[in-house]
Amino acid sequence: MKKWLKTMAWAAAAGAVLATVAVSAAGYAVQRATDGRVYASPGEVPANRAGLLLGTSRTVRSGRPNAYFYNRVDAAAALYHAGKVEYLVISGDNGRKGYNEPQDMKEALVGRGVPAEAIYLDYAGFRTYDSVVRMEKIFGQESFTVISQEFHNRRAVYIAQALGLDAVGYNAADVAAYAGMKTRLREKLARVRMFMDLWTGKTPKFLGEPVEIGK
Question: What range(s) does the DUF218 domain occupy (predicted)?
Answer without folding.
Answer: 67-172
